């Protein structure tokens, strides 16, 4: 948005800058003692831009919020809301990002920046996925919000980044299942381990964790005496992931015990084999 700056506006912005000069010492300073009502929406908005350019995202968000509060019917209000979301994103204020972004989506669902608001909302969850050991609720919320970007705004510039982040978040969920499965496997709780690895193979087939999950199923099922399941898991590895270390390890483990890597028996892995190897989905 291009905004003209006449002499009066420039003078007003300068006055506002002087009035706020004492608050420039750090981003933690609040401006509660400033009477914003004496300034125009234009002047307050420009102060927000000024702070944002200088890395004072929290103060910038405060100025944009004042535009929305004092001038709800101004032409700048719509822009001020999306800029609040952006400033909060810069400040890593996740709850505030969601509030501003959702408000923009609710008020202006057909606006060209609605896709960006939805993307910022998704990032407020995605950016908190920083380690496997955390609660996975944030990951599910990130996936849901990213899917909204992909499905509602497929032609926007944010669709492709959302797809990439969706895949990474999906992979993150699989990594959590793998972590728990390995935990059980190390403690010889083979049935519980197999259940976790099964989730990866059934629900997260497109992730990078599938080859290891199949190998861990070979280990778990052999330990449980379920040879047909182990052989079938090895067969899937051989067809789909032959070039991986997990296939080599499963091959050595199965053949070392006199077993072949072939689909055998009537079990859930046999259904996976028919789908992924033979292409029989019905």
Which characteristics define this entry?
mainly alpha; Serine Threonine Protein Phosphatase 5, Tetratricopeptide repeat
Describe the structure.
This protein starts with 6 loop residues before the first helix and ends in a 6-residue tail after the last helix. The longest helix has 28 residues, at about 160-185. The protein has 13 helices and no strands. Helix 3 packs antiparallel against helix 4 (about 75-90), helix 4 runs antiparallel to helix 5 (about 95-105) and helix 10 packs antiparallel against helix 11. It is elongated. By secondary structure, the chain is mainly alpha-helical. The protein has 2 domains: about 35-170, Serine Threonine Protein Phosphatase 5, Tetratricopeptide repeat; about 190-275, no CATH class. Residues about 1-15 and about 20-30 have low confidence and may be disordered.
Helices and strands in order:
Elements: H1 7-19, H2 41-53, H3 57-70, H4 77-91, H5 94-107, H6 114-126, H7 137-152, H8 159-186, H9 190-203, H10 210-224, H11 227-240, H12 245-256, H13 268-276
Helix pairs in contact: 1-2, 2-3, 3-4, 4-5, 4-6, 5-6, 6-7, 7-8, 8-9, 9-10, 10-11, 10-12, 11-12, 11-13
- How large is the radius of gyration? 27 Å
Q: Name the poorly predicted regions.
A: 1-15, 21-30
| Tally of separate domains | 2
Number of strands: 0
Profile the largest sheet.
Answer: none
CATH topology of the largest domain, which one?
Answer: Serine Threonine Protein Phosphatase 5, Tetratricopeptide repeat
* End-to-end C-alpha gap: 53 Å
**How large is the count of helical segments?**
13
Helical fraction equals: 55-70%
Beta-strand content bin: under 5%
Q: Look at the helices and sheets and give the structural class.
A: mainly alpha
**How confident overall, as mean pLDDT?**
87
CATH superfamily of the largest domain: Tetratricopeptide repeat domain
In CATH, what is the class of the largest domain? Answer: Mainly Alpha
Indicate the overall shape: elongated
- Could you say what the CATH architecture of the largest domain is? Alpha Horseshoe
Order of helices and strands: HHHHHHHHHHHHH
């Amino acid at each position: 948005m291009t905004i003209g700056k006449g002499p009066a506006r420039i003078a007003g912005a300068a006055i506002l800058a002087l009035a706020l000069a004492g608050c420039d010492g750090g981003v933690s300073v609040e401006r509660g003692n400033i009477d914003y009502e004496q300034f125009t929406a234009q002047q307050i908005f420009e102060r927000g831009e000024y702070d944002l350019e200088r890395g004072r995202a929290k103060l910038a968000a405060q100025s944009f919020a004042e535009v929305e509060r004092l001038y709800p019917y101004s032409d700048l209000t719509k822009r001020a809301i999306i800029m609040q979301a952006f400033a909060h994103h810069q400040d890593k204020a996740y709850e505030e990002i969601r509030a501003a972004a959702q408000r923009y989506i609710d008020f202006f669902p057909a606006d060209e920046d609605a896709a960006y608001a939805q993307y910022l909302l998704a990032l407020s969850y995605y950016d908190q996925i920083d380690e496997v050991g955390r609660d996975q609720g944030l990951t599910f919320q990130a996936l849901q919000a990213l899917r909204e970007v992909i499905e509602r705004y497929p032609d926007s510039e944010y669709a492709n980044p959302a797809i990439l982040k969706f895949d990474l978040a999906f992979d993150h969920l699989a990594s959590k299942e793998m972590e728990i499965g390995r935990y059980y496997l190390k403690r010889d709780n083979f049935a519980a381990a197999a259940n976790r690895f099964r989730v990866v193979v059934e629900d997260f087939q497109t992730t990078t964790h599938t080859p290891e999950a199949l190998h861990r199923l070979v280990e778990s099922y052999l330990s449980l005496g379920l040879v047909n399941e182990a052989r079938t898991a090895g067969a899937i590895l051989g067809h789909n992931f032959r070039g991986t270390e997990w296939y080599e390890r499963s091959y050595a483990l199965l053949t070392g015990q006199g077993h072949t890597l072939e689909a055998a028996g009537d079990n859930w892995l046999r259904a996976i084999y028919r789908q992924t190897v033979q292409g029989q989905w019905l």
